[in-house]
Structure formats: structure tokens, C-alpha cells
Amino acid sequence: MKKGCPYGTHRVISPKGVLPQPADVIDNTMEIYDNEVLIDVQTLNVDSASFTQIEEQAKGDLDEIKKIMKGIVAKAGKHKNPVTGSGGMLIGTVKEVGPAYKGDLKAGDKIATLVSLSLTPLVIDEIFEIRPDIDQVDIKGQAILFQSGIYAKIPEDMPEGLALSALDVAGAPAQVAKLVKPGDTVLVIGGGGKSGMLCLYEAKKRAGVTGKVICMGHSEKSTNRARNLGFADEYFAASATDAVDTYNKIMELTDGQLCDIVINCVNIENTEMASILACKDGGTVYFFSMATSFTKAALGAEGVGKDVNMIVGNGYTKGHADITLQLLRESDKLREVFTELYS
Amino acid sequence: MKKGCPYGTHRVISPKGVLPQPADVIDNTMEIYDNEVLIDVQTLNVDSASFTQIEEQAKGDLDEIKKIMKGIVAKAGKHKNPVTGSGGMLIGTVKEVGPAYKGDLKAGDKIATLVSLSLTPLVIDEIFEIRPDIDQVDIKGQAILFQSGIYAKIPEDMPEGLALSALDVAGAPAQVAKLVKPGDTVLVIGGGGKSGMLCLYEAKKRAGVTGKVICMGHSEKSTNRARNLGFADEYFAASATDAVDTYNKIMELTDGQLCDIVINCVNIENTEMASILACKDGGTVYFFSMATSFTKAALGAEGVGKDVNMIVGNGYTKGHADITLQLLRESDKLREVFTELYS
Question: Are B140 and B123 in contact (CB under 8 A)?
């Protein structure tokens, strides 16, 4: 059995020397290296941007969607959408574990891979069913998990769909758990969204009765959704693209003290300055939004002389899947809203 | 006297509701609000990208450069290059301080503003001299510093040009001073560059004899420059766009332990993965490079399952100018190389 690199570089065909994610073509031979895991795939959870693009290209025709998806994998050895560059995740059952693989997986374990499909060696034998409303595709096929690939075991005490909907954004609340301290004033921008609601719950848990959690929603609808959950101390709806307006509102809600921690969960552009201005000097701005611009954040903070610590949201942190699934067990309200909206 | 907003929003003409930096047109009337500082400008230190663009547009003709620069300011009320979007900084003497301004400035102080020209109200009466080799332009004119605008007093114990060359990158070593602890293993990517050399010096000072500082240079030339300074423990030249190669080299130099802190100072694209792979789990990657892509960093770390703390380089942190100027006083070697190369 051949020895593999933890990052899967042994499977890169072209271009040479890059990692599997940026690679154009990877080797999807379903014979494992010594540190790999072979998975019988049940469902592909295609990235939302990717699925929408494929659906549009196929003009909504299901057979055409199947053809496009099979074509992507046949060409690249993985399901990396050539237009959007994005992947998704998969659900399946462990078939075989390499002898040198370090981890707690064994044959028969049901898992969700939390690394992107854009770097996961995949073979699609057959596509059974497409569920366009939730971007899911049931297939017969196999995939490879590298040593460095993160995953979560599907819990037995909750419906699969519910677990998956939360695992999709597992990084955010787990990072909040590390950041927020008792007594902190925390602003969650986009608090009525999927990751935002998890962050609100975790932030209030950590900040405690001496802390203050402020929920800023993008619309009245999402703000009311968060208000009904009742995790935060203050709620308001506003556009985070209006930095000055956001700043004035936060000044008012914090008696001019501003926030210790600002969590940006809103996937729209130009919200960097609102996040920075809402944060006090010495505080932390955590950008979980993929619409964040590095230069707008860096130059923006310098331009207004703000000494804030700005963190690039890492979708992974140790134990993030366990931390996030636990929130659904702790809070009936979260479980209900996630069941209703996302599963 | 009218009351001003600390961020200068009172000077924004269009579009309404934005901050002065993204604004198209700001009010450059040289009559101060109560919390502003009026400056008699001596020299504009135009951002390198901006100056290069203007020089090319003018085909190197000095009179044409003057015309373009005056045109930008006449139209926008500030020197924000409409093509590059960037500004620069200025040197001048404080003429008047508003009664509500909080800070230690008084009339007669010679300062360099460290906020961008892209947000600084400016009037150019006359352009005296252009020094294309160092992007500097001597003018007769005036500018406004907002309450939030950062600046440094020009020190009297070193040549002006030397101080300015270091102030230009003051954020980087000041952030290193906050991050690096005794015993840390630190990688500086781009250690032979301007900010890289300052970071190497500060990193070794903080990591101490029990720590290890590794300098990675982009070329043999820049690596040798750093080697001659002698601040680091290890030196090598390689391309940080090759993540796998960088990872293997760092594994070798750290006995498989990888680094506690990785400082990225190299202004080229696609160096995120090399920075992430070189860092150990639980470590910190500090991106000072403006070529950093937020999504490449965020998705890259998740893709390889790295639990690293990734920080957006903030050009400002409290005391950054003092910290950086002090390095030039402490180290004769730094002072020599900065005098030779940048002043």
C-alpha cells in the first residue's frame, strides 16, 4: 500500500506541486493510500452557489443536472464547480480505513465530511435523486478522505437533516465559544441568519448575565426571528453597509462604550467598516462572512485609527462539530427553528 | 466653530452616508471644525501604486504629473487616485488645532500623517518638486487631520527620510511585539523586505534565546540581505506560492513541530496556504500582505483542517510609530540598511 501525504498532494495530477483544492485534476482511483479513508457515498450536499449555477445551466432539467455533475467529476476527479470554484460536503459510510490513518474512524461509521467537495476525490456511479430545494443529490459512488480531512460522525439522537444543517456552519459558534468572556458586550451582525442564531446563543451563554449581547438583523423579518428566540439583550434591524448609522446605533445601545467582540455573519459586501466602528479599541472583530474583503478591513481600520484585532473566520476549529451539535441538544428553540427552516 | 465627527463624516459631500475614504468627493475647505487639525503641507509621499500609475499616464512628463495630481485634488477634495484607489501620506507642520481636538498636537509640531491621503482633505496651491524615484512631491498646500486620524511626530534625532521610510510600515513590527512570546518559533515570510526586516528584529527580541526565528526570502538577494543583518536563526530562499515545498522546508527546520507564529510580509498573491501549512495547530498566522485573499485564507485553513488563528494585519496599533522608530535607534544595522535602501 502506498504512503500518502496528510494533505492529499499524492493525488494531484495537474498542475503539479499544488494542493488538491486548487488543482484542476486529481486522481480519483478508489484504491486507498495508507493514511486515507474510503467512503461509500450516500448524499452530496452541493454548495449553494454551485448548485444554483448548475441548475441555471441545465435550465432546471434534472437529467441535464445529472449530466453536468457527472461531467465535472469525470473531468476533475472531484466535484469542484468550474464556474463558482466551490464544492460542498458529503454524507456516507466508512468502507475502509488505511492502516496509517490517525483518527477514530472505523468501517461502518456514518459520517459527514466537513472538507470541501472541491478537494475530495470522488466517483459517481449513478445519480438516484436530486432535491433542488435543499441542494442535495443522492448517489451511488465513493469518495476519499485525506488524513487532514475533517468530518463529523452523524449523531444518533437527532434527524440527519437537522444535524447537517448545523454542521454546515459549525465553525462560527465554536469560535464564539473561544472568544467571548463573561461580562463582554457582543454584537452579532446578521444575528437572524443560520450561523448568526447559533452565535447569539453561544455568545449569551459565554457573556452571561453581566454581559450584553446585541443582535443586528438585516431585515425586520430576520430580526424578529431572532427576537422570538430571545437569546440577545437588544435587537435592531439595519443595513451593515451603512457604517455611520450602525456606529451611532451601537454608541446609543452601549452608552458610548462600543463592543468588546463583533461577530460578522452577514454574507453581503461592504460591511467591514460597520464591524470595525462598532468595536472598541483593543476589542476583536471576527469576520465569518465570505464576502469580507481583506484590504477593506485592513485599510479601513487604519484609516479610522482603530486598534482592533481582526480575525479571519476559520471554518474549522478543534471540536467544532461536537460544540455545534450540542447547541441543538441544549436549546429546544434552536432545534425547532433549525428543523423548520433548514432540514 | 462647527462640531465635527471624529471620523470626518461631516466633510463627505458625495455619496451621502459613507466615510471619507470611500467617498467620491469631500469638502476641502481649509477652515477647521472644532475637533480638526490644520496642517501646512510640505511633502506628499504618494502611494507607490498610485504614483506609478500617474507617472505612466503622464508618460514620465513632470508637468503632466503635476497637472494630473492637481486635477485629482480639484475634483475629489483629496488625493485618492481614481484608478488605484490608493493615497499615501503627508509631512507638514501643524498650523492650527481645534479647541475640541483630543491629542498632544500644538501649532509648530512637525508631523507625518499616517492615515491615507485617500481620506484626507487637501488643497494643493503649487507643486515645487517631484522626486519620482521615491514617489515624493513637495508642495505648497494645506490639509486637515480628523480626530481619528493617526500621525507621528517627526523625531529630531534621525534624518526625516529615514524616519518616514520606517513609519510607512510601522504596523507590522508593532503587531509582532504584541504577538511573539519567549520561546516561540516564528517564521517571517518575506523577511528580506522592508517590513520583513523590522519584523525579524522584533521577533528575535521577543522570542529570545529559547525561541527560533526563521527568515524565508523571496529571492537569494533579499535572503542574503536578511542574512547579513543576522537577526534570525535560520534563512532560506523559496517561493511562498509553493505551499508544499514551504511546508516540507519548515518541517525540516523545526523537527516536525512547525511554527507558533507565521508573519506574512510578502506582497504577492497565493501565499495563504504556505503560511497556514507552516503554522502548528493552535498557532497564529498574521497576514500583513495586502495581496492576501480573505476567502483563500478562510477556506484554505478549513480545507486542510488547520486550527490556526488568522489575523488581518491592521496597519495601526497603539504606539506603533514609537515602537518602530525605536527599532532604528536600537539597531545600527537596521538604521544602516534603511538609510541605504529607503531614504
Answer: no
CA dist list (Å): A180 to A13, A177, A249: 43, 6, 22
| Residues 217-246 in B contacting A (C-alpha not used; CB under 8 Å) | 242-245
Q: What is the pLDDT of residue B315?
A: 85
> B44 vs chain A: nearest CA distance in angstroms?
17
> What is the DSSP-derived secondary structure letter of residue A31?
S
B83-107 confidence digits (pLDDT tens): 988 898 999 999 999 999 999 999 9
| Chain A from 261 to 300: CB within 8 A of any B CB | 273, 277, 281, 287, 290, 292-295, 297-300
Give the residue ranges of DSSP H helices in chain A.
48-57, 62-76, 160-167, 171-179, 194-207, 220-229, 243-253, 272-277, 294-303, 320-330, 332-342
ipTM of the complex: 0.88
Q: Do B116 and A302 lie within an 8 Å CB cutoff?
A: yes
Residue B287 Cα, gap to closest chain A Cα (Å): 9
Of the partner residues B19, B118, B301, the one whose CB lies closest to the CB of residue A314: B301
Per-residue pLDDT tens over the stretch B310-325: 999 998 898 999 999 9
Cα-Cα-Cα-Cα torsion A201, A206, A212, A216, nearest 10 degrees, comes to: -40
* Cell (9 digits) for A262: 463583533
Tell me the chain A residues in contact with residue B17 when contact means C-beta distances shorter than 8 Å: 242, 244-245
Mean confidence (pLDDT) of chain A: 94
pLDDT digits (tens, 9 = 90+) for B186-239: 999 999 999 999 999 999 999 999 999 999 999 999 999 999 999 999 999 999
Mutate which of A304, A306, A310 to disrupt the B interface (most B C-beta within 10 Å)?
A304
- Grid cell digits, residue A242: 451603512
pLDDT digits (tens, 9 = 90+) for A178-211: 999 999 999 999 999 999 999 999 999 999 999 9
- Burial of A102 per CB tally in 10 Å (0-12, 13-18, 19+): exposed
Q: Is B185 exposed, middle or buried, given 0-12, 13-18 or 19+ CB atoms closer than 10 A?
A: buried
Q: Chain B neighbours among A 101-130 (CB < 8 Å)?
A: 114-116, 118-119
Predicted structure pTM score:
0.89
Cell of A140: 451511488
| Residue where the block lists cell 477556506 | B299
Strand order in the sheet with A151-153: A122-131, A136-145, A37-46, A88-97, A110-113, A151-153
Q: pLDDT tens across A291-305, in order?
A: 899 989 998 999 899
Res B30: pLDDT:
97
Q: Which residues are registered as beta bridge partners of A141?
A: A41, A124
pLDDT band at residue B133 using 50, 70 and 90 as cut-offs: confident
Q: Which residues of B touch A245 (CB under 8 A)?
A: 17
- Grid cell locating A119: 478537494
Tell me the C-alpha to C-alpha distance, in Å, between residue B153 and each of B45, B93, B112: 16, 10, 6
Measured torsion, CA atoms of residues B30, B36, B42, B47, in degrees rounded to the nearest 10: -100
